[in-house]
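Protein in question filed below.

…
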Amino acid sequence: MPRGRRVNIGRRTRHASQQQAYSQNLSEERQNIIRENARLRQRVSTRRSLASYNRLAFQYDPTANYSDDENLDIGPMTTICRYCNALKFKRETAGLCCASGKVKLDPLLTPPQPLQPLFDGSDPDSSYFLQHILEYNNCFRMTSFGANIIREGGFMPTCKIQGQIYHLHGSMVPTPDEPHQFLQIYFISSMVDQLNVRCNIQGTQQLKRRIIEQLQAFFHANNDVVNMFKTALERMPSDTHKFVIRADCTPTGEHVRRFNAPTVNDVAAIIVGDPTKSRDIVVQRRSNIMHRVNETHRLYDALQYPIIYWQGQDGYEITLKMVDPITGTIFTH
């Protein structure tokens, strides 16, 4: 083979190698561009999908499985509010729980016996009580829990609810041939009969009778809401009378649970007719109609969770005055 041809072969080989290296570098650049464009498209798509979640509650599909969507994974409650010590999710706003210290509720008091030993572990049945505290609470709650609960087959570690939860209350005395439920159980004359009814509530058969009996006597002696209802029932002359708990009225200089004569009272009154506001709790002596408790009523939580609000304390209500978190002074505007 001629010498020149060998030289051309070497030149072509070097050129091919250079072209291959250039193509490889160009391919890597193109791949980087492609990957970057893919990331941008994903970012835009994520923005669009997150924007579509703003009104997802109005388009909720109970048949869809949202648990696999990473955009809906809000993580554990690891953030602690520095003002009220509330546990919050990472992305919750700072002022969501207490308006950054501007909303202050009275602290929950340490309960006396027999409730405190059940909480702190000094009672031999404390562990069992804490494990079944929801069932024990259900024995004494005064309102029912309502919601559209989604039930699925197999084990469900969480409770799925569609729409808004709500609390309902009935009359103080059941209609003839109807069993006592919720608030009505407190007005059974015999304490033994009360205990038997509580022990037979659905889902509470595994609870210990001794604990239920102790808690029953405890709430009758210490819960101001229970005693207020009992006093009202004694003063209601007929089934047409209604007992009204005002949503946002507290007598000046008086305890919020004070119950005066049924003629004039800013907190609770016995009336005939319907001169009430939409947020008030209106309880009739005897009726088969259930009424919804407004979620902004000050007794909304106390009626549903008596073990936590063992005194029947007021909770949040919309007329609560804000305070300066530093000076403690009340905002006038």
Q: What stands out?
A: The beta strands are 79-80, 87-88, 144-150, 160-169, 242-245, 268-271, 281-284, 291-293. The chain is about 30% helix and 10% strand.
